[in-house]
Specification:
With about 270 residues, the protein is an alpha+beta fold. About 45% of the residues lie in helices and about 20% in strands. A hairpin with a 4-residue loop joins strand 8 and strand 9. Helix 5 packs across helix 7, helix 7 runs antiparallel to helix 8 and helix 8 packs across helix 9. The radius of gyration is 19 Å and the shape is globular. It starts with a strand and ends in a 17-residue tail after the last helix.
């Protein structure tokens, strides 16, 4: 059985969406269909119910092959985070490695393997939101910052625009409009700032305490990585426009949630 890297994505709250707003399920599947992961010839995607799998197809034996695959898997997770902006949908994902088989028999998809079972069991144990990397793979993932989450997984910061906002600003806000507009930072950081706002909102909502604890856990990781950004957000009533009041935030905010129906090429109903 081939040895693969596996990105396992679990869409959270899926059963509630099915029960309360079936229209959002169609929209969600359009989002999943639009992801860049489908267009990379080194990877294959499988989607079933509330789960998406992405795995590498082959190994060429290249010197930096693990780094290449893991970097793109993190990029795929970031792509999903951005496209879920203002949809009120969150995910938890893990990247693992191990045996995984995928083939078709008379158009019947068949997929199984130790890595899939491991990813499924591991993801269910993680009480937080975001992307988590099996820490045995830590040495191959040096593009995205990460912190130890538990004995088995690291929390991965797929919020590269927040890195730029925190580091390039020196933690001093507000910023000049030209800085975030001319560099296009405003377009990339808006989804990530809104993601933070959504986490804080859910963490202080009327949701069950066990659910709110997951959001709070992720918030703690973001606050450690982005102390200036998160403090400024909290001190300004979570109004992201305060980071640069003279910038044209509205044109960016109006973009979300962005419709993804353009990605649907065919639809066959049974």
């Amino acid at each position: 059985m081939p040895h693969r890297y596996l990105l396992y994505i679990d869409i959270l709250g899926f059963s509630d969406l099915v029960a309360k707003d079936i229209g959002k399920i169609d929209d969600l599947y359009e989002v999943l269909a639009s992801l860049h992961a489908h267009n990379h010839n080194a990877f294959k995607c499988i989607i079933f119910s509330d789960t998406m799998l992405v795995y590498n197809l082959t190994f060429s034996g290249g010197l930096h092959e693990p780094e290449y695959y893991l970097m793109f898997m993190c990029e795929f997770a970031r792509d999903l985070l951005h496209r879920l902006t203002k949809r009120g949908v969150f995910f938890r994902a893990v990247i693992t490695q191990g045996d995984f088989q995928h083939y078709e028999l008379n158009s019947i998809p068949c997929f199984f393997g130790a890595s899939l079972i491991h990813a499924y069991k591991s993801e269910k144990k993680i009480k937080a939101i975001g992307l988590f990397l099996e820490n045995s793979l830590r040495k191959y993932c040096d593009i995205f910052p990460k912190r130890r989450f538990n004995a088995e997984f690291d929390f991965v910061y797929i919020t590269q625009a927040l890195d730029d906002l925190e580091q390039e600003s020196g933690g001093i806000f507000p910023l000049d409009a030209w800085y975030i507009e001319d560099t296009d930072l405003i377009w990339m950081v808006t989804p990530e700032l809104l993601h933070l706002v959504d986490l804080y909102t859910r963490a202080s909502s009327t949701l069950p305490e066990s659910v709110k604890r997951k959001y709070r856990t992720s918030i703690k990781f973001y606050e450690r990585q982005y102390p200036a950004v998160t403090a400024f957000l909290k001190n300004n009533a979570f109004d992201i426009t305060k980071f640069s009041p003279k910038a044209n935030w509205q044109q960016v905010l109006d973009r979300h949630p962005e419709g993804m129906s353009w990605a649907v090429k065919t639809r066959n109903e049974f």
